[in-house]
Amino acid sequence: MSGYVSRFERRQGTVEPLGEQGRTVSAAATEAVSIELRRVEQSFGQNRVLRGIDLDVPAGQFLAIVGKSGCGKSTLLRLLVGLDRPAAGSLRFADRSGNTVEANARIVFQEPRLLPWARVVDNVAVGLGQVIDKDTARVKALMALDDVQLTDKADQWPARLSGGQRQRVALARSLVSRPGLLVFDEPLGALDALTRITMQELVSRVWRELGFTAVLVTHDVSEAVHLADRVIVLDGGKVALDLEIPTEHPRRHGDPDLAVVERRLLDAILG
Ligand SMILES: Nc1ncnc2c1ncn2[C@@H]1O[C@H](COP(=O)(O)OP(=O)(O)OP(=O)(O)O)[C@@H](O)[C@H]1O
Questions:
Q1: Does the keyword Cytoplasm apply (predicted)?
Q2: 120-176 pLDDT, tens digit each
Q3: Which is nearest to 66 in space by CA: 267, 218, 186?
Q4: DSSP codes joined into one string, 90-118
């Protein structure tokens, strides 16, 4: 496969990937961003959904947001990726030196939202979001497909893929621009239980390898505890609980220490 470079070679920095016409393509790792929210508020008419959120997320952290349905999780996510502006308060993104930067944020939704008329590799290249030559785009897209272990499906049509494979393509499309912040909005909610566990392992691995800052919204507290360094509970438009998850990655399903944290979070959510 022309221009294909293995993950190992990229991590070791031993190989500069080449486009089909011999151009070098940057395989730069992500520049993770830190996030600072100060007194962030959001309202829809009379509905005051977020009522003064203060939050600091260090660069490279994996944060999960949980809470009852309608508590404002997706509203907060939309602010983080710049889809909406807050009614009040401020958001700031910074690099590891503390300089204010654009977040280069991407979002992974529950539905993969693939273009049915485009092959897998072209669906991934859509995530580059800029006009670059076709060969370079293909090389970058293949590298992102390698991140999710799906290079063998590069020239397949989306309709030929399983639900889990489609979600891996969606993840590759988000990774292809090497975002500093990757936001997951219930990304695994539509998958069966076993595929979900496989996808959790995959998300955890790409996060550890690429080092971006991750924010996950999920209804599944066990998923939050399995993936995140830190979990916050939203309630009444505020951060009602903020818990560090001390266990090392990768984590084992059924770990008793995680079960204790999970119970605490569920108690906070259910009141
Ligand atoms: N565009 C909008 N216009 C009007 N109201 C909205 C809009 N988006 C969200 N809301 C309202 O804001 C509140 C929070 O919605 P949000 O989707 O953020 O909750 P959530 O915690 O993500 O819910 P769920 O867990 O059910 O997905 C709800 O009362 C919802 O009806």
A1: no
A2: 999 999 999 766 788 889 999 999 999 999 999 999 999 999 999 999 999 999 999
A3: 218
A4: EEEEE-TTS-B----EEEE-SS----TTS
**Secondary structure letter of residue 248 according to DSSP:** P
CB of 50 closer than 6 angstroms to any ligand 1 atom: no
**Residue 233 in contact with ligand 1 by CB distance below 6 A:** no
In the three-class reduction of DSSP (H, G, I as helix; E, B as strand; rest coil), residue 91 is classed as strand
- Cβ atoms 160, 181 nearer than 8 A: no
Residue type, 164: G
Is residue 46 within 6 Å of ligand 1 at its C-beta? no
Indicate the pairing of strand 230-235 with strand 62-66.
Answer: parallel
> From the CB of 72, is ligand 1 less than 6 Å away?
yes
Query: ipTM > 0.95?
Result: yes
Total residue count of the chain as it appears in this document = 271
Helix residue ranges per DSSP H, 97-186: 120-125, 134-147, 163-175
Q: Which helix (H) or strand (E) holds 160?
A: none
Domains of the chain in sequence order: 7-270 (3.40.50.300)
